[in-house]
Specification:
The protein has 205 residues and is an alpha/beta fold. Helix content is 39%, strand content 14%. The chain has 8 helices and 8 strands. The strands form 2 sheets. Strands 1, 2, 3, 6, 7 and 8 form a 6-stranded parallel sheet that branches. It has a two-stranded parallel ribbon with strand order 4-5. The structure holds zinc ion. Zinc ion binds next to loops.
């Protein structure tokens, strides 16, 4: 299923109202989907802390419900948490009422750990226009995908591609167990590369 996690090029034309990058002179926006996950998210937080980077975590409600203490740590360290639905639904295959209810459940869990924003990222980048309209949330897509979920990933290729990010780019990683091997190779390279270039890493707000 994860193999289809590729947003077709035409999605940008269909959905110009979604956010694909953020106007900025000197900042890169790192995002982490599908957590929080013990050990993995904690490792990410330590990495970010070392270079004073802030990021946005698009958490799954069911994960956050199980690990609220990690959610609270994310917020207390100055990062943002956004909604990634409760159970990782694929919008194209889910009717609107079910989809909206899953997002609302995710929101409830987020409120419990102190989240106040209305950031949202649809799982797989797949969402219907009718769902976007009814949700009325700030829907954050991305400009650069790390492909860290690919178990056959050419890590160097991924790093080279991510290094082409510019100010305002939104990068996607996954703080899940399944992506951890790739993430451990990719993230430190990206952090040191852009730090050396004088970029800041900011959370989306
Ligand atoms: Zn996801």
């Amino acid at each position: 299923m994860i193999r289809f996690y590729k947003t077709p090029w035409f999605t940008r034309l269909w959905y110009p109202s979604l956010i694909w990058n953020i106007p900025s002179q000197d900042s890169i926006y790192l995002t982490f989907d599908d957590g929080p996950t013990p050990e993995v998210t904690e490792w990410v937080l330590d990495q970010l802390n070392q270079v004073d980077a802030k990021a946005t975590f698009f958490c799954l409600g069911k994960q956050l419900e199980e690990h609220p203490e990690i959610g609270k740590r994310i917020i207390s360290q100055g990062h943002q948490i956004g909604n990634h639905t409760y159970s990782h639904l694929k919008g194209w295959k889910t009717n609107d009422a079910h989809y909206l209810e899953d997002v609302r459940l995710g929101e409830e869990v987020m409120k419990e750990v102190g989240v106040t924003n209305n950031l949202f990222r649809p799982p797989y980048g797949r969402i219907r226009k009718s769902q976007i309209k009814k949700l009325d949330l700030q829907t954050i897509m991305w400009s650069h995908l790390s492909w860290d979920f690919d178990s056959n990933l050419n890590v160097n290729k991924s790093i080279a591609q991510l290094k082409r990010a510019k100010p305002g780019s939104i990068l996607v990683f996954h703080d899940s167990q399944k992506c951890f091997d790739n993430l451990q190779l990719i993230l430190p390279e990206i952090l040191s590369h852009f730090q050396a270039k004088g970029f800041k890493f900011e959370a989306i707000s």
